[in-house]
Description:
Elements: E1 3-9, H1 14-24, E2 28-35, H2 42-55, E3 64-66, H3 80-83, H4 104-114, E4 119-123, H5 128-136, H6 140-143, E5 144-150, H7 166-170, H8 172-180, E6 185-188, H9 190-197, E7 199-200, H10 202-209, H11 214-232, E8 238-239, H12 241-250, E9 255-265, E10 276-279, E11 289-295, H13 297-308
Parallel strand pairs: 1-2, 1-4, 2-3, 4-5, 5-6, 6-11
Antiparallel strand pairs: 7-8, 9-10, 9-11
Helix pairs in contact: 1-2, 1-12, 4-5, 5-8
This protein binds beta-D-ribofuranose (BDR) and calcium ion (CA).
Amino acid sequence: MTTPLIIDTDTAQDDCVALLVGLLDPEADLRAITMVAGNVGFDQQVRNAFLTANVAGRLDEVPVYLGCRSPLVRPWVSAENVHGDGSGGLDMDRSGLTTASEHAVDALVRMAAESPGALSIVAIGPLTNIAMALAKDPSFVANVKSLYVMGGSNNGRGNITAAAEFNFYVDPEAAKAVFAAGFDVTVVPWDPLTLRQAVFDQERLDRIAALGTPLSDFFTRVCAATLEFDRRVGIDGTTHPDSLTAALLLRPELARKVSRYHVDVETAGELTRGYAAMSWGVHGLEPNARVVEEIDTEGFFDHLLKVLSRPTEPNRPILGL
Ligand code: BDR
Ligand code: CA
């Protein structure tokens, strides 16, 4: 049986790879792509999502809903210095393509209510849309089967600041509300998990490039700007927190160690905005989330290799590839 899911995304670089997982893993039944303000300009993120669906040969099959264009209470913060435009300068003819008319928050609420307890959400951007959905409909939390969140660090370093990971930093109020809401939530953190176990070094990148498929060429291009940035900051390869989050929902056997934590997010701190406090039981706090601590890195890489080796036919020519 396939897994019905929605991917809530700020589509750039690894968000594109996560969409490929959702679009092409035979275990996945991707019902919608919902867009949230994050990595790069909102409209560019939408272009990146369409481009990704096109390379997968699934353009116009999965609806793209436009969500919140800014965080709940703060101005948007971009990661264009990390990701460029998020798609390696690739483009396509977009004539005739339309996004869904319903707002992403309404779509999330509606789709969860239509199949209570069946739908999972993979949230790989700031949690603005998810927080809005739970504010809008008190039964949203119970209607969602499971929420997989990429964000925070588990007693490790941040990336946008020393304390905070980007997704939680951009909308800390939303992240705080989500962890207080009572979802069945699984967290894929930046440090140490992503930094230690979901970085593809040159040898792995070469194996992907050698596939020679439209998908592998696309992968190489969308990851190029981030790879350059990562190397400048001392990370030896491309980082894959978002595609890992999607893969863990669909292939739970890729998780080797998952522990219960109490997760809360700092909204008041000056130097610690967006810091995720992950308490492991000694602080007297009830666990409210599962945090992934170890994965099968080789299995994850093999899974992506399999997805990227599929000989898809893009629906429209990819300009620049
Ligand atoms: C997260 O921030 C974004 O730049 C990535 O897409 C990922 O979701 C990592 O901190
Ligand atoms: Ca993301």
